[in-house]
Specification:
The protein has 240 residues and is of the alpha+beta class. It contains five helices and ten strands. A hairpin with a 3-residue loop joins β3 and β4. The protein is globular.
């Protein structure tokens, strides 16, 4: 059973990459190798973001030691970029994903996941930021076409996660990667998505509203993991 669970989690990793096949390309696809023109100066204080959704409010803390991703998220939030976007992909026990601008005008059942602002961000993968329940991380295209693991300029996901025994994680190894004692304890007692560690940039976490994330993750969905009933970010706000 443990081997089957591990295999399932590994397969789910593939679903986190931004969709490429059978979908329209980002209108600014020729710009996907440039980074956001944002201030990368590291703040001394973590920034808070409020996501008002049709299921309730989610309060997010952005880490100050991932300045490229955090500042970019703040910039887009202040521009109203996320207002009206959908959580277009949800997988209970794994994650909920949003940030595709095409979702603002998407027809019911339309496949989503390939939109963005026209640029990508350099990876900021830091060992002490891992995929615990409630972590915020950046989606990206797969390693084959993105060996530097650059992040989408706007698409992000919130880890819903599930608990995993430490004994199972100790037996799991990927390219020499080993889980820290803190990670083992957190994944066993709180839960998360450990198979994503060291592969995606984690740049924040939910500090209030995980019950809303639970509701979104458990929504009825179609074959592409899009909720059958649209779940929208009504407004995103920087909390000063």
């Amino acid at each position: 059973m443990k081997k089957i669970l591990t295999l399932i989690l590994l397969l789910l990793v593939c679903q986190l990459t931004m969709a490429q096949k059978g979908k329209k390309k980002d209108k600014n696809a020729d710009k996907t190798e440039i980074s956001a023109n944002t201030d990368t100066k590291q703040n001394t204080k973590n920034t808070m973001i409020l996501l008002e959704t049709t299921k309730g409010n989610i309060k997010i803390e952005l880490y100050n030691d991932t300045p490229v991703h955090s500042n970019n998220f703040v910039k887009l939030t202040k521009e109203g970029y996320y207002d009206g976007m959908l959580f277009h992909r949800v997988i209970e026990g794994f994650m909920i994903q949003g940030g595709d601008p095409d979702s603002k005008t998407a027809a019911p059942g339309e496949r989503l996941g390939s939109g963005g602002p026209g640029y990508t961000l350099p990876a900021e993968i830091i060992p002490n930021h891992f995929h615990k329940r409630g972590a915020i991380a950046a989606a990206r295209t797969g390693d084959q076409g993105n060996p530097m693991r650059r992040s989408s300029g706007s698409q992000f996901y919130i880890v819903h996660g599930q608990k995993t025994p430490a004994s199972q994680l100790k037996a799991y190894s990927r390219y020499g990667f080993e889980f820290s004692d803190e990670q083992l304890k957190t994944y066993e007692e709180i839960g998360g998505a450990p198979t994503l560690d060291a592969q995606y940039t984690v740049f924040g976490e939910v500090v209030d509203g995980m019950e809303v994330v639970d509701m979104i993750a458990s929504a009825q969905k179609d074959g592409a993991d899009r909720p059958k009933e649209d779940i929208k970010i009504i407004k995103a706000t920087v909390i000063e």
